[in-house]
Amino acid sequence: MANENTIKEEVTNQEEMNTTQDTTMESTETSNETIVNNEEQDELTKANEKIADLEQKVQEYENKLYRVQADFENYKRRVRLDQEAAQKYRAQSLISDMLSSIDNFERAMKIDAEDEKTKTLLQGMDMVYRGLIEALKNEGVEIIDAVGQQFDPQLHQAVMQVEDSEYESGVVIEQFQKGYKLKDRVIRPSMVKVNQ
Amino acid sequence: MANENTIKEEVTNQEEMNTTQDTTMESTETSNETIVNNEEQDELTKANEKIADLEQKVQEYENKLYRVQADFENYKRRVRLDQEAAQKYRAQSLISDMLSSIDNFERAMKIDAEDEKTKTLLQGMDMVYRGLIEALKNEGVEIIDAVGQQFDPQLHQAVMQVEDSEYESGVVIEQFQKGYKLKDRVIRPSMVKVNQ
Fold this sequence. Notes:
The structure is a homodimer. By secondary structure, chain A is α+β, with helices and mostly antiparallel strands. In chain A, 62% of the residues lie in helices and 15% in strands.
């Protein structure tokens, strides 16, 4: 568009000048002027080609720049999401590794304390146990609700099915092993008995 | 450089043509040609200005593009380092939270097992304890060496100093509380007695 306008303007100017100006140059100069004029037209054509090339180059750089900037923004967003997820589930590996010890802990404490010494030991162990569970809770670990809940394949793993008219259909009626979630992610489903 | 060469060429061409060509145009046309020539020179000047502008623009885009690309690369490198560090020390918070429970665990187990029941309980608890320590080790947790080591303020916290000729100078002779490292990072220094 800019080029077209320039050409139109030029044509108009030439016509105006043709009607208002008179001859002032000698014949010998005419030839040189004409040649120079042709030369200048050549040069102008080259200049206009160069302008077109450069304008294309500018356009290419502009596109490339936008693309790189868009890539950069996408990368930043993805990194932010990755970092959030990594932060959210950061302790998952250690927690998973700890679960069998927590199971053993609970099993070992299911002992009848008869003498004072065993009672004292059990009390101490109960304090340790609650401290560990508290540390896990602080990290976002939750025990999955099971007994009395509707069976949910996302949270519960059915290892036994019974038909018991005392309970509603599809309800978890017993838990064999505790399940754990880390925030919204199930680390280990609860192993349960379900009523059909 | 390209511009200079073009100008030189043009001048040479003009001189050649001045000597080989003759007058072929009428006087009335001369005036118009001269004006058109001026017009074209104006246009050429404008075109050259535009070329200069565009070349500057291309240069600016080129610089901008290099800058954005360099920023992008730096960002990627920083993110990689951040992610490595986040991954390396991911469980630090949970580990720190667990240390007092581990202390209590060790304290509670320092009991004389007399009857069989207490012995069984202690054996079960020892298994749980070793399971937890194993899980911590898998995450990169190490117990800091203390007794018999040279005192190191990076690893040990001196809570007591004695002068005992039986031991070498600056040696840790007793530990009051275990210290822990997570990989190369001290989570809690070892609390010790040092020989002056």
